[in-house]
């Protein structure tokens, strides 16, 4: 079994996937790992909608059409759209946001990281996609949930093996006041 250090340090965003299907049980395992994250007041604010096949195609069609309507610079969004079109599974991640606290969103981010690490330990590739925010209103309207969109996550069997990326060191990011 993969050690925690191997999972944390070996995980990379995967943006190219094989077309092979990902069994629902594996996605369930990843979501179960997500549910063990810490959460504000143990509110477990995370919610997930798993898209594959037709439900995924409908969503990515909407996303691409909405991107086409925008006149602003959408950055990497078309790349993220293609990634979602090609990945066998896309998980939409939501925050129930019942109390309207900023910390509720933080809970959901913690859950996403658990999900990504579990997926990696199962040999799956994932990518956290924030580019869905470019079309936030349209996506909210499309799913009609009383929640707040946090991210989309692509999941699939990797068809690339990204090497390590440069990381800031502990001394770059931490101050020790003792
Ligand atoms: C909040 C957030 C939003 C992100 N949005 C996107 C995105 O829209 N498209 C994309 O290709 N990658 C996205 N990523 C992935 C980052 O680019 C990636 O995590 C970062 O470059 C570090 O690489 P690594 O994940 O391989 O360690 C996002 C990551 C985070 C945490």
Structural commentary:
With 178 residues, the chain is α+β, with helices and mostly antiparallel strands. The chain has a single domain (13-160), classed as 3-Layer(aba) Sandwich (NADH Oxidase). The protein contains seven helices and four strands. It has helices at residues 4-10, 24-34, 53-69, 77-86, 102-121, 136-143, 170-173, and strands at 46-52, 89-95, 125-129, 148-156. Strands 1-2-4-3 form a four-stranded antiparallel β-sheet, with helices on both faces. Helix 2 crosses helix 5. It is globular, with a radius of gyration of 17 Å. The termini are far apart. The model has no long low-confidence stretch (mean pLDDT 97). Bound molecules: flavin mononucleotide. Flavin mononucleotide binds at residues 12-13, 15, 76, 80, 127-131, 162, 165.
Describe the structure concisely for a colleague.
This protein is α+β, with helices and mostly antiparallel strands.
